[in-house]
Amino acid sequence: MFKPPRPKIGIASQITSIEKHGNLLFVVIKKPEGFSFLAGQYVTLRLPSLEGKSEGVCARAMSLASAPHENDLVIAMQLSDSLYKQEMQKLSDGDLVEIDGPFGYFTMHETLEPAIFLAGGIGIAPFRSLLLAEKANGWPHDITLFYSVGHLENAAFLSELALLQNNRFRIIVTVTRSRINEKFGVTMESGRICTAMIQKYVSNLPDNFCYIVGAPLMVSDIYCQLCESDIDPRKIMTELFTGYE
Q: H or E segment at 126?
C-alpha cells in the first residue's frame, strides 16, 4: 500500500486566484515547494487575519479539488454566514494563508475493481482531484459518478468533468430542486440518490468500491442503503462535509 506523504504544519502560501460564483467560492493557492499529496486528501487552511479573534475559528479542513500533478492547489467551498467564510471572501490575489497537511485516507483503491462516486453538492471537490488523477494515470478504473445538486447553477466543476467522460467514466447528475437541463452533456435524473437509481446504471453493485461525500444525513442514508444491497462495508469510503444542512 502506498504510504501517504508526511503532513507539514504552518506552510505559508499565496492566493493566486479567488472567484465567487453564486453561493460557491473557488480559491487557487500557489502549491508550496516540496508539498505533495494523494488525490482525495485534504488540508487545514488557516487565515492569519483571524488569529486571536475567536478561538478555533481561524482554520478549517478543506478537501483539495486539485490533482497532485497540477501546479496549484484548488479549494472549493459553499459560502455561509460563518466568520471564516465571510473573512475568506475578503481575501485577494497575493494574500497569504497557512496550510497544514495533507491529511486523510479518502484515496483510490489500489486494485482494479470499478468504482462508484457519490457526491452531494460541494462534496464534488475531492472527486475532481481523484478524476484528474485517474485521467493522468490512463483511466485504470471504470468509474460512475452520481452528482446530486439542488440547482444546476450550483454544480461546481460540472462543465469540466463532463468533458472527461469516456468509455471508462460517465456522470449522472441528480437534480433535487429545479428542472433538468441537458446542456451539460451528461445523463440527468430527478430526485435524491438511492440504490434503485444507482442500479439503473451500475450492475453488480457488490463488485464496486463506493465513495460518498456530502452532508452527514446524505452520507449516512446512502451508506445504509449500500450496506443493505450487500456491499461489503470495507469497500465503502465516506467523508462528511458539515455545516450545509
A: helix 125-136
- Compute the distance between CA of residue 60 and CA of residue 84 in angstroms, rounded to an integer: 8
Average pLDDT of span 100-113: 96
Last residue of a domain, one of 103, 132, 151: 103
What is d(CA 237, CA 198) in angstroms, rounded to the nearest whole number? Answer: 16
Distances (CA, A) of 155 to 5, 83, 86, 97, 193: 30, 24, 21, 26, 15
| Better pLDDT: 166 or 184 | 166
Give the pLDDT of residue 57. Answer: 81
Amino acid 78: pLDDT:
92
Cell of residue 44, nine digits: 487545514
Percent of the chain with pLDDT over 70: 95
- Identify the residue with better confidence: 244 or 45: 45
Burial letters 138-158, b for 16+ CB under 10 A, else e: eeebbbbbbbbbeebebbbbb
Q: Which three cell numbers stand for residue 86?
A: 465571510
Nearest Cα neighbor of 145 from 91, 198, 67 is: 198
Residues 119 and 63 in one domain: no
The answer on 136 and 51 residing in a single domain is no
